Amino acid sequence: MGRRARDRRDLPHPPPVEKIELPSGNTALRLIAVVLFLLIGAGALAYSFSQLFATEGGWREIEAGASDGPTCAGEFTFYYELGADGRAPGEENRALSALYTQTCRTAYQLFHTMESFEGAVNLREISMRPNEELEVDPALYRAFEAVREAGNRTVYLGPVYARYGDLFSCQDDVMLVDFDPRLSEEVAAEYAAYAAYAADPAHIEVELLGENRLRLRVSEEYLAFAEREGVECFLDFGWLRNAFVADCLADAMMEGGFTRGTIASWDGFARCLDGREGRTYTLELLDELETGRPVCAGTAEYQGPMSMAALRSFPAVERDWERFYRLRDGQVRTMYLDPADGVCRAAADSLTGYSQTLSCARLAMKLGPVFIADGLDAGALDRLAAEDVQTVCCRGRTLRVSDPDLALNSLYEGYAVEQPEK
Question: What is the pLDDT of residues 124-172, one digit of tens each?
Fold first, then answer.
């Protein structure tokens, strides 16, 4: 949504995730959940599922129409069980598709940082009109409410993301010096300067004025600095963007009365809307071996409704090259930037969180400070468990599980589990 990577098809791609046979049970639900949580979007598997569930009723992939302009649907997969409540599957599918299409289009426009759209006050419009009172869509207003409640400053790293994002389009390591603060002292100083402004509410802050009205307050000092540097984008949700979009889509479906489905983004955020008793879904936990090969380290069953977020320090699927760059020496650059200085960090190979009470965005903002760090704070994970944020953290070949009731299945060879007693 807003960034276009150069063609990197000639570069080496991550090896496929090794397949693990799931235990017996409700195969349809398990397969759907696995695909959703692997977050590999459309492609071959989506085609397979469209063939598997080709009947009018039952589990189907819901698609958004593209005739009226671009949407964010290409970044999400949405599976739904049609006809389960007695409604005609065809009629339900049409109504659901129409709502999903409209919501995907709205979300695409609202969270766009590089383009303006007629009738939509989005992130770009807010950035271009600092210190002006504006009325925004309720979904965007709620997003800024969540940011304020969490005390998260990532959204104010817009200038850093605007430049750093080009790193993932680089064709060779030598090109990284213009974007990577770990390779250039000049770039590091530039990002640190932006981060200092972003961290200070006296220099930049979205003021919430009520009734969906807000103002991006920017100090005269920061405005002058931004003008000298050619800054046009003050706001960018960065790696958190699709967490907020997932909530936007899920909330709209639930408000429309559609609750028998699951929505997931390709980059790690999922909402299970289904709260029916006895409906079990499968969560897959990805990890990277020492050889650089991604694998499914284990699986776990859960029941919805549920929000989930998976943060990884390694690429695992084809589209991950939009947000990861692996150097020749094996180091990886990611989108997970530290608001303190604009440098990417990862305290673990992967950190998966899930919650029955929090939205995707609120969950992700709680996980972010723990994951984006030089070292893992085990105490912080324990404290999150008291806030209905359960986690599974992969480090080395150990899965650290916070929930004593979570049963892990299909462990990959050599993996151990560290889990509190019931």
Answer: 999 999 999 999 999 999 999 999 999 999 999 999 999 999 999 999 9
Which two tokens mark 338?
């530290």
The residue with tokens 């997931």 is 264
The position carrying tokens 């530039």 is 190
| Grouped pLDDT means (10 residues each) for the chain, 422 residues | 42 43 44 44 40 65 89 97 90 95 97 95 97 98 98 98 96 97 97 98 98 98 96 96 98 96 97 94 94 94 96 94 96 97 97 97 98 95 95 95 94 95 84
CB count within 10 Å of CB 160 equals 27
- Interval 327-358: pLDDT, tens: 999 999 999 999 999 999 999 999 999 999 99
Sign of the torsion angle spanned by Cα atoms 105, 110, 113, 115: positive
- The residue ranges of DSSP E strands in 109-212, in sequence order, are 133-135, 204-210
Contacts by 418-421 with C-beta closer than 8 Å and gap 24+?
A: none
Q: Alpha-carbon distance 39 to 356, whole Å? A: 20
In this structure, are residues 345 and 331 in contact, taking their beta carbons and an 8 Å threshold? no
**CB count, 10 Å around CB of 77?**
26
CA distances from 237 to 157, 242, 399 (A): 8, 9, 29
Instruction: Report the distance separating Cα 237 and Cα 296, nearest Å.
Output: 29
- The neighbour count for residue 61, using CB atoms within 10 Å, is 18
d(CA 369, CA 338) in angstroms, rounded, equals 8
How far apart (Å, rounded) are the C-alpha atoms in residues 354 and 307?
6
Helix (H) or strand (E) holding 299: strand 294-302
Distance CA 390, CA 370 (A): 13
pTM of the model: 0.87
